Amino acid sequence: MNRLQAALASTQQFQQMFDELRTWLNDRQSQQAKNCPISAKLERLQSQLQENEEFQKSLNQHSGSYEVIVAEGESLLLSVPPGEEKKTLQNQLVELKSHWEELSRKTADRQARLKDCLQKAQKYRWHVEDLVPWIEDCKAKMSDLRVTLDPVQLESSLLRSKAMLSEVEKRRSLLEILNSAADILINSSETDEDDIRDEKAGINQNMDSITEELQAKTGSLEEMTQRLKEFQESFKNIEKKVEGAKHQLEIFDALGSQACSNKNLEKLRAQQEALQALQPQVRYLRDFTQGLVEDAPDGSDASQLLHQAEVAQQEFLEVKQRVNSGCLAMENKLEGIGQFHCRVREMFSQLADLDDELDGMGAVGRDADSLQSQIEDVRLFLSKIQALKLDIEASEAECRQMLEEEGTLDLLGLKRELEALNKQCGKLTERSKARQEQLELTLGRVEDFYQKLKALNDMTTAAEEGEALQWVVGTEVDVINQQLADFKVSPALVF
After folding, report:
1. Which end of the chain is more exposed for a tag (fewer CB within 10 A), N or C?
2. DSSP annotation string for 15-57
């Protein structure tokens, strides 16, 4: 009886504990059934994990009661005789174990899934927190990239733009990692996936937008840099050639009148041709500058470019005018010198002709008529030489005046030629005068000879006439002496 009472009491106590645990299990199962789907959001995941940990903690706290009840039930099964009661107790234990194990398994499974999803959410969030601030910083920096006409600022902006574009390309790999992390998180979660998808799409869109804007900005900066470079190259090319022409003009100015020469004229003409070929570039620079100013962003300071283009055009026109004037003046001077040189050549030719003429004069004549003709020829020849000498002297005077005004090397050469010409003319004059003197001397001798010959002939005639008038030679001494004395004093016989 006592044993039966004890068994009954034990069975009642077990049933009470069993009912309490089963009620608690039912509540937990009901609570577990109401668990929210695993979120993709980090904050909700952390909250869900904490709730599940609390749930598992409660489960662990009741594990002792569960084990006592199971042990007590199994003990009761041994003491209860076979029958309906034992079968009922056995079913209750099986059901209790099943519910407990299922609850424990689901709780552990949820815990594992929550932790796994939390890790994936944290990894995704790390990538977001790494990439998004950089995107915002990149947007802020892009606003400072401005297309300007200032070469220094433009170069700085272009370098920064290229560096940012390179950084964007590097960040592409991080974006791919973020996208992969987002996809993994979405596949692991049960809710809030759209928020992750939207956030991921926004980040990708921002990245694409930054890339496109940076590429466009870099292209604009490169284009303006190239245009400014082209402007500077064109400006420097014009400046260099204009400076070359100016330097040549300065050299000519320093040489003064000595700069006037055919060689220097060729140099000046070469500068003239170079400047003529440069004129289209000057016009292009002007139009190019106007295009730059029109395409420049609002507020850009284009004064420096406009000033450079204006200075280049003004200096080009001034130097071109000076070169053209210099060429014209030098051409006129050299034309005058050329004409003067031709005159000198002509006088040399005249002198050579006169020299040949003098050499071609025949030998000194032997009769008065020939000598008179030769003397007349020499006198005419001397008049020609005198006229040539006057031309030479006039040319020398003109050359000295031109030297005072011009002072060119060509004129110095012509001056020396005129001096040589004058000396040759003097020598030819001396030779002509020597021939004239020779002819006149010979004529004088011929005339004297003929005068003496005439006198001799006259005396001979007179002697012959006197001889005819003379008496016959006497026979007496006195008569002969008288005749001899008369003969000695006869004029016809005096030579």
Report:
1. N
2. HHHHHHHHHHHHHHHHHHHTPPPPBSSHHHHHHHHHHHHHHHH
For residue range 64-87, list pLDDT tens digits in order.
888 888 888 888 778 777 888 878
- Out of 3.10.350.10, 2.10.270.10, 1.20.58.60, 2.40.10.10, the CATH code matching 336-457 is 1.20.58.60
Domains 2-142 and 336-457 share a fold: yes
Mind giving me the DSSP string for 311-361? HHHHHHHHHHHHHHHHHHHHHHHHHHHHHHHHHHHHHHHHHHHHHHHHHHS
Query: Is the Cβ–Cβ distance between 148 and 72 less than 8 Å?
Result: no
Tell me how far apart the alpha carbons of residues 189 and 128 are, in angstroms, rounded to a whole number: 18
Best CA proximity match to 249, nearest among 319, 329, 333, 335: 319
Q: What is the pLDDT of residues 206-258, one digit of tens each?
A: 999 999 999 999 999 899 899 889 988 998 999 999 998 888 888 878 877 66
**Confidence at residue 7, expressed as pLDDT on a 0 to 100 scale:** 45
Q: pLDDT higher for 51 or 475?
A: 51
CB 439 within 8 A of CB 374: yes
Predicted model pTM: 0.61
**Whose CA is closest to 164, among 217, 241, 117, 224?**
217
Residue 401 has a pLDDT of 77
- What is the C-alpha separation between 197 and 179, in angstroms, rounded? 9
Q: Which architecture, in CATH terms, is 2-142? A: Up-down Bundle (1.20)
Q: Which CATH class is domain 151-332?
A: mainly alpha
In this predicted model, which residue has the larger pLDDT, 466 or 167?
167
Look up tokens 């600022």; give the residue: 153
Average pLDDT score, the chain: 83
- Please write the tens of the pLDDT for every residue from 8-67: 456 677 778 888 888 888 887 777 777 788 888 888 988 888 987 887 888 888 888 888
Whole-number Å distance between alpha carbons of 380 and 435: 13
Q: Where are the domains of the chain?
A: 2-142, 151-332, 336-457
SS (H, E, C) 365-417: CCCHHHHHHHHHHHHHHHHHHHHHHHHHHHHHHHHHHHHHHCCCHHHHHHHHH
- What single-letter DSSP state applies at residue 363? P
Collapsed DSSP state (helix, strand, coil) of residue 462: helix
C-alpha 18/C-alpha 271 separation (Å) is 119
Beta bridge partners of 39: 191
Contact yes or no for 149/305 (Cβ under 8 A): yes
User: 195-226: buried (b, 16+ CB within 10 Å) or exposed (e) per residue?
Assistant: ebeebbeebeebbeebbeebeebbebbeebbe
State how far the Cα of 275 lies from the Cα of 285, in Å rounded to an integer: 15
